[in-house]
Amino acid sequence: MARQIFAFIRHKDGVVDDSAYEFITAANKISSGALSVAVVTGCGAQLDSVCNEIKSSFSSVWKIDNEALSYPNAEIIRPVLTKMLPGDAIVLFGHDTLGMDLAPGLSIKMDSPFISDVIDFENIEGSELRLIRQEFSGQVCTHVSCDISSGAIINVRPGSFLPDESKSAGGEVIDKSAEAGNLSSKRRFLEIIEAEMGDIDITKSEILVSVGRGIEDEDNIEIAKELAEAIGADVSCSRPIVDAKWMEKGRQVGTSGKTVSPKVYIALGISGSFQHLGGLKGNPFIVAINKNPRAPIFQVADVGVVDDLLDFVPELTETIRKS
Amino acid sequence: MEILVCIKMVPDTAENEIEPNSDGTDIERDDLVYSVNEWDNYAVEEAIQIRDNIGGSVTVVTAGDENSEEILRREMAMGADKGILLSDEAFLNSDGKGIATILRAEIEKGKYDLILTGAQADDGAAQVGGMLAAMLDIPYASLVSSIEIIDDTRIKVGREIEGGNREMNEIDLPCVLSIQTGINEPRYVGIRGIRKVASLDIPVHNASELNISPDTVGEAGSMVKKIDYFVPEPGEGAEILEGSNEEIIEKLVDLLKSNGGIK
Ligand SMILES: Cc1cc2nc3c(=O)[nH]c(=O)nc-3n(C[C@H](O)[C@H](O)[C@H](O)COP(=O)(O)OP(=O)(O)OC[C@H]3O[C@@H](n4cnc5c(N)ncnc54)[C@H](O)[C@@H]3O)c2cc1C
Ligand SMILES: Nc1ncnc2c1ncn2[C@@H]1O[C@H](COP(=O)(O)O)[C@@H](O)[C@H]1O
Questions:
Q1: What pTM did the predictor assign?
Q2: B185 domain residue, yes or no
Q3: CATH no. for residue B127?
Q4: Candidates B4, B6, B65: which one to mutate for ligand 2, based on the most atoms within 8 Å of Cβ?
């Protein structure tokens, strides 16, 4: 019998997250021809429209409808999944803020191994699944093997698998709501507080000079500002710069910051973590200046300069000013 | 409030370039500078601030070899009251579940209201906190960016979600929280601070003291195993500009101009 692989679908305001279609590719890489089952929790009409949208992409769709699931609270979803999934299930989540919240604990409750932040699957030999992960923000990769005979809980990195939008599975929606069981929780969702808008809106900028931890010191930010001024750019940054309170949150590019789509993006001392790059859309022309020739940013940049930015950038600015 | 913070010693990526060793069995560890995992440092600062506000104690714990004592001392110099080292040959090469199993054994010997971990460590797994909570059967919240104590039994917790929005939750104690960077500004620790705690005793607990059966942890207990380390394929990669500084700058300025990067 073909292997069953479950995929947990994220959605918001009735819109299906891109990860749903990436899971199909991922599932086929784990086991070609696997039957993929979408698991969708939520409530009401929005849940129905999500299920209908994805049903032609999966072998079947489990719909779990309950008022208590209207907001995706990991502490409520986990026991529901523990109760409903077969003990040896292979289950895919996105390595995002919900997947990180939900999946590690689920692996304990299911007594299955947990594999985090997978970027590629290689093959299965017997009961050993081989896959690829990264460590140290992408500076090195590892091959990992995992015994999946008792199932596995797997978080896959958003954007690592090409979305499969062929909609060629023709599945049906199965209403599993009655099996959900107890839906109370010791963690109660209260509200969402929206991020504050900053002094400028970097999502509208055409050129961004973006500062990372490689800037080393708050005073050095001036170097980036001067370059930005010389070329008519706005200044943005990576997360550690905001954490250090050197710039405001509104200027942070990345999954937990802003999604920007400039024409040109100049990354100064940014390593290129997936959470940072996740905020860069629209295929900009990327220039990376970094002193480490192996920084992952060079894999996505169009042009790279391997140098100390504190020396290089002032010279660059000076030349541009003169011309 | 009795608070436990789990911390890990990791190679400091701000200080080192990480690369595989010659046979790919590990990263090259000669000359690495180690420090406290960045996220854990925020967790310890948060714990100290809570204790200073409402009283109680902060314990820092790590599973590691004798060198890890150094990070326990560093966090005690920050203000943690107590450090515990969990160390045993049998713990070597534990996967995330193994580490959570070891930490759980220590936690069950004490009585903690709040257990903090970092959101993730060097390999970016972001797993130990969630596993620990599930093993202890207490609630969990990840990526925590604010904590407000309501009373002895409940706290209000903000989780940072996509777009930097904050998801507010009320959680019953005891619970496990994984802390996101930026929640506070960790205090600076100077040499003098470290010297002050240099002679404090740090108990070491091994597998038998923790009643851990060796086959549930370490290499033996891992279902997830690293086979090798390698450098990612360069893929298409950037065109790396070469030549003298003037030549590089000239080429870069041309490229910027032709791509609309100079207004
Ligand atoms: C849930 C979650 C959400 C996250 N969201 C975001 C997000 O929205 N945005 C974001 O940016 N990050 C985010 N992160 C953090 C992310 O994982 C990385 O830690 C972060 O992006 C690293 O920032 P960086 O590249 O500036 O720093 P580092 O990774 O420390 O890189 C610094 C780089 O500068 C180089 N360098 C150092 N000195 C110099 C010099 N003098 N000259 C030239 N180069 C130099 C180094 O070689 C290195 O490549 C998130 C993490 C988590 C867990
Ligand atoms: N060996 C360890 N000892 C103590 N705590 C650890 C250890 N490994 C991981 N942790 C904790 O778990 C968090 C997440 O790590 P990880 O799941 O490995 O990404 C870290 O920030 C620490 O708080």
A1: 0.96
A2: yes
A3: 3.40.50.620
A4: B6
